[in-house]
């Protein structure tokens, strides 16, 4: 419906909310404006001219702008106040365009406001989840650190970790009864010994038995076990590193001679470690292969018993189990190994007696007892009888001859005699006559 220009003009003049109108000549389209923001120019010929309504009190005669009211002989007056609303003619169809423009702006600003609110919520939720994740990660980190500190005592290592720690197993320390030992450094700079277990087919059960034992061990005179590796065919133990090496190397091969006080302290420390295994652990643990090679010395020459690969667990009820697969070392094993009697903790007492004689004399038992391997026990039995005879009858000169000559006579006579007597009692043929390791510790402390 075409609207005359004059009708559009009067409609705007009679409405206080109208600030002007826009009219398109030709199609007669009228656009009343209640708000004025900006203008747009169109390059097409159909030009829409904007007419702005100004107060009647304003003198526009001197303004160089086109004016529409110059043709109006009768000036139009409109009173706009809150008390007397202007009279409005019935809304023609064209007049809805004003409300349509207003609704367009309302939707535009509503959309912008809604988008802003959504964006604020988005950043708020993002910040919340990021902060929550950081807090959670810090809590997880703290928990992992606590677990790592607790697990440092005994945990599983990967083969890759141990290969890196040992520089691909480059630093070999020596061979043991069950495999090769390598020196390594963990990521936390701890020096360790990585012991590989050979012949996996025959040592798998032994390995798991040893793990069962290791998890319950904690004593200053027992070598600390940091963990193990059980990955594919690899079976390894991660042990505490003892700076001075084995007692065998220090006692028999080193040019540096152990002083008497150090030897006595080693004897006492080994006895305390065995007493812990026999009497203080949650389960009855027998070493079964005690010898100088399995006694390591730290920086302060404090003894630490190692190599529990042959250890077996016996019930506290007293039912002795025959350990058929365990093998000791010739010269250090008790007579019941050969006779096939059930194995008890007294086999460790027998081995400890041999170690005592070697500590005092500074000589291997094979050098003290001449004979073939299958006759070592017979010869050692005769040697013990000779020691008993000389202890009862010979004077201090015999003790001085038996003690390691490298000491140059610098030793405690009463302690040396007590150690020899204690060794003889530990080497009794009948195991019931051998003392317990607890009584051995008490005897050593008494002298």
What does this structure look like?
It contains 13 helices and 14 strands. The protein has helices at 5-13, 96-151, 159-165, 200-214, 247-253, 260-280, 335-339, 346-361, 365-368, 376-393, 396-402, 413-426, 437-446; strands at residues 20-24, 29-33, 48-52, 155-156, 172-175, 180-185, 191-196, 225-231, 234-240, 245-246, 284-286, 295-297, 303-305, 312-314. It starts with a helix and ends with a helix. The model is unreliable at 83-91, 145-151 and 312-326 (pLDDT under 50).
Quick gist of this model?
This protein has 447 residues and is of the alpha+beta class. Helix content is 42%, strand content 14%.
Please give the share of residues in helix.
40-55%
Please, what is the average pLDDT? Answer: 78
Label the structural class. alpha+beta
Radius of gyration: 51 Å
Number of beta-strand segments = 14
Individual helix count: 13
Shape annotation: rod-shaped
Give me the side-by-side strand order of the main sheet: 4-8-9-7-6-5
Unreliable segments of 5+ consecutive residues? 83-91, 145-151, 312-326
SSE succession:
HEEEHEHEEEHEEEHHEEEEHHHHHHH
Distance between the termini: 128 Å
Proportion of strand residues: 5-15%
Largest sheet: 6 strands, mixed
List keywords for this structure.
447 residues, three-stranded antiparallel beta sheet, 14% strand, six-stranded mixed beta sheet, single chain, alpha+beta, rod-shaped
List the helices and strands and how they pair.
Elements: H1 5-13, E1 20-24, E2 29-33, E3 48-52, H2 96-151, E4 155-156, H3 159-165, E5 172-175, E6 180-185, E7 191-196, H4 200-214, E8 225-231, E9 234-240, E10 245-246, H5 247-253, H6 260-280, E11 284-286, E12 295-297, E13 303-305, E14 312-314, H7 335-339, H8 346-361, H9 365-368, H10 376-393, H11 396-402, H12 413-426, H13 437-446
Parallel strand pairs: 4-8
Antiparallel strand pairs: 1-2, 1-3, 5-6, 6-7, 7-9, 8-9, 10-12, 11-14, 12-13
Helix pairs in contact: 6-8, 6-13, 8-12, 10-12
